[in-house]
Amino acid sequence: MKRLQNAIDRRILLKKLQDSNEERTTLSFYRYWNIGNPDLFRDYLYSHFEKLGVMGRVYVALEGINAQISVPNSNFDSFKSFLYSIHFMDDCRLNIAVDDNGKSFYKLKIKVRNKIVADGLSDSSFDVTNRGKHLSAAEFNQLTDDPETIIVDLRNHYESEVGHFERALLPDSDSFREELPLVAETLKGKEDRNIVMYCTGGIRCEKASAWFKHQGFKNMHQLDGGIIEYARQVKKQGLNNKFKGKNFVFDERMAERISDDVIANCHVCGKPADTHINCANLACHVLFIECDECRTTLEDCCCEECQTIIHLTEEEQKELRKHARIEQRFFHKGREVALRYKKINV
User: Fold this and answer.
1) Which of 23, 56, 217, 302 is a good FRET partner for 43, with 20 to 30 A between their CA atoms?
2) What is the tens place of the pLDDT at every residue in 272-315?
3) The CATH fold of domain 123-237
């Protein structure tokens, strides 16, 4: 039986993607649905997506599917036909990227998970279908014109740092699971206010709004399609864009620019900047913001210590990674003490 996964080296795939002239469309979609056999469905998707040249990240669980992918333009119609041929995916909205160079993903990865979003919630304890009211971009703008309306960003700190809506509550959290009780505590006493939640593509709001209604919040709303769909509607309808900066995305692009505003700062020198990179020292690999000047000076590293390490031999670097992960700095996403201009608690 054919092995349903990619076994080619990551560096080879990345170079192939960067050298390719193939036009591709980046998109995301999700659907909550009771999938009886996630493993079988995973293999079914993989075999068809691979034939169509689809690349990206897909999570399948008993509760549904969550996907961020790119599709060759030449196969886009065939991809849609296949996806919509799955009965519960018929007419599923595809959130097309708003700032796309076609270099978002370099391989196909489909995984079976316990949940399609790690929310830490016990779904049996509340009605997950009793969601908040979905808002279009125009409805979002109208409701948030009221200064009494509370706007909540349901993304992590490193996402909202480079872009967010005006007046939004920005929880300082590392994960969605951590964020929900934090937001509930912050909103205590405001159960009767209009509350509008938003995230990247809408999936985090689907269950979060239902959970908050279960907690006693009466007037829950959510931005339909998230920031991606909002940006599309704003441009198409000529609406006032209330989102400032970039929309962080979980692929090789790192972000989509929604407005020209640069609201973040280089974590090394403090100058205005909003480009995320991972430290070139693989024993660190911290996700952080770095301006072009610091990126050149430090050779894509977050500090001089890491810059020194990348000039060691490959064998020496591997030995360092084997014995220590530099105080477990791995993937700390902008919370490393070496990042002087990031406001963090350490």
Assistant:
1) 23
2) 999 999 999 988 889 999 999 999 999 999 999 999 999 999 98
3) Oxidized Rhodanese; domain 1 (3.40.250)
Question: 3-state DSSP call for residue 68?
Answer: strand
Domain extents in the chain: 10-112, 123-237, 264-346
Catalytic residues, by residue number, are: 199
pTM above 0.90, yes or no: no
What is the token pair recorded at 45? 């998707």
Whether 55 contacts 69, CB under 8 Å: yes
One-letter amino acid for residue 159 of the chain: E
Nearest partner of 4 among 64, 63, 37, 49, judged by Cα: 49
SS3 343: coil
d(CA 31, CA 115): 12
Contacts of 209 (CB under 8 A, 6+ apart): 131, 132, 197, 220, 221, 222
User: Quick check: 249 and 97 in contact, CB under 8 A?
Assistant: yes
The crossing angle, in degrees rounded to 10, of helices 137-144 and 226-237 is 100
Decide: helix, strand or coil at residue 320: helix
Token pair recorded at residue 151: 């706007």
**Predicted local distance difference test score (pLDDT) of residue 12:** 72
From the CB of residue 136, how many other CB atoms can be counted at a distance below 10 Å? 16
CA distances from 86 to 22, 31, 311 (A): 27, 12, 51
Of 157, 34, 57, nearest to 106 (Cα)?
A: 57
Helix (H, G, I), strand (E, B) or coil at 109: strand
Tokens standing for 264?
């973040």
Find out whether 187 and 195 touch, Cβ atoms under 8 Å.
Answer: yes
CATH for 10-112 is 3.30.70.100
d(CA 304, CA 44): 47
Check the CA dihedral 188-192-198-203 and report its sign.
positive
